[in-house]
Specification:
binds nicotinamide-adenine-dinucleotide, binds manganese (II) ion, 21% strand, 2 domains, single chain, 43% helix, binds 3-isopropylmalic acid
């Protein structure tokens, strides 16, 4: 029996996560699901977006299904999702981008880099320290190398070592680990890589990069598959794992039943794979493909199905197989 923490969060997280949860419940009625409330809405109600208690609850789960949280750009507000990633030490952020003729896995370092949290405002100057460590780079590139080996593929190291000393360390650690492992690899500057990924997606397999570059690259790469509504992700550490769409809380469309739940459903599929149920994961994926090929789509893909109606169609496919 597995225990799944369900964090809907804010905005469209509250619409797409119920769809993903229903899919998991249909495949695993024996799982226990328990809600954990965090986010901006929680902050508005209680003055605290995420307390230690919620972090402790998340740690009791076998896996976390996460929607999205709103992070207002206020000086003193700490992003809840970043706090959770750090508290659970979810250092590997896996962001697959899979379409016709290409299958890319972006492996984003998730705990350091420009997201070190070491920053300050001082009058008219604000600084953020970009921290890259040997240990942090080693563990992320080793995760990427394991994926390359499983997929029998190759590795691309994305960096900006021409400008950033911190990325000289990142590139050198990645290169040396890749050589040691005997895998095929190359490295590219992140700006040129971003364009080339869009122009030649079939040339890529696993791409490893630092925190913010991976953040931007994964939104950009979702263009290849139809946008953010379709892009899932996994945040994996040595002890815990959290699965969430790449997208955010999308306040512009929240509460309208128009958000695309595919990214959340695919994240649920990644959760099942992580828990060892690859068959369940494939059933979600296959059901999604069938529904999309029937022309049932949400508005972002040119269709007219609502979030719930799309979810119903996927559920019917899962149950009717
Ligand atoms: P966003 O990803 O929420 O939205 C970007 C654009 O994509 C919007 O136009 C939105 O409508 C569209 N979009 C996103 N998901 C969609 C879906 N499932 N279906 C259809 N359209 C979709 O990014 P943003 O607008 O830059 O950020 C909004 C808020 O979300 C901010 O507070 C940000 O900090 C937060 N955010 C949170 C997470 C997270 O919790 N993991 C991730 C990214 C952004
Ligand atoms: C993401 C988001 C987060 C990030 C924000 C909301 C902190 O953009 O999950 O991609 O930058 O990691
Ligand atoms: Mn992002």
């Amino acid at each position: 029996m597995k225990r799944i923490a369900v964090v809907e969060g804010d905005g469209i997280g509250r619409e797409v996560i119920p769809v993903a949860r229903r899919a998991l419940e249909a495949l695993h009625p024996e799982y226990e699901f328990f809600p954990v409330e965090v986010g901006y809405g929680k902050w508005e109600q209680t003055g605290c977006p995420c307390a230690d208690r919620e972090i402790d609850e998340l740690k009791t789960a076998d896996a976390v299904l996460f929607g999205a949280v709103t992070t207002p750009p206020m000086k003193d507000y700490q992003s809840v999702v970043l706090r959770i990633r750090k508290a659970l030490d979810l250092y590997a952020n896996l962001r697959p981008v899979k379409g016709n003729g290409f299958d890319i896995m972006i492996v984003r370092e998730n705990t350091e880099g420009l997201y070190s949290g070491i920053e300050e405002f001082f009058h008219d100057r604000a600084t953020t320290l970009r921290v890259v460590t040997r240990a942090g780079s080693e563990r992320i590139v080793r995760s990427a190398i394991r994926l390359v080996q499983e997929r029998k593929g190759h590795l691309t190291i994305g960096h900006k070592a021409n400008v950033l000393k911190s990325d000289v360390l990142f590139r050198d650690v990645c290169t040396s680990e890749a050589k040691k492992a005997g895998i095929v690899f190359n490295d590219r500057f992140i700006d040129a890589l971003a364009l080339d990924l869009l122009q030649h997606p079939a040339a890529y397999d696993v791409v490893v990069t630092t925190n913010i570059f991976g953040d931007i690259l994964s939104d950009v790469a979702s263009y290849l598959v139809g946008g953010l509504g379709l892009a899932p992700s996994a945040n994996i550490g040595d002890r815990y794992a959290l699965f969430e769409p790449v997208h955010g809380s999308a306040p512009d469309i929240a509460g309208k039943n128009i958000a695309n739940p595919v990214a959340a459903l695919r994240s649920a599929a990644m959760l099942l794979s992580y828990l060892g149920d690859r068959n369940g994961a494939s059933r979600i994926e296959a059901s999604l493909e069938r529904v999309l090929s029937q022309g049932i789509r949400t508005r972002d893909l040119g269709g007219s199905a609502g979030t719930r109606e799309f979810g119903d169609a996927v559920l019917r496919e899962i149950c009717g197989e």
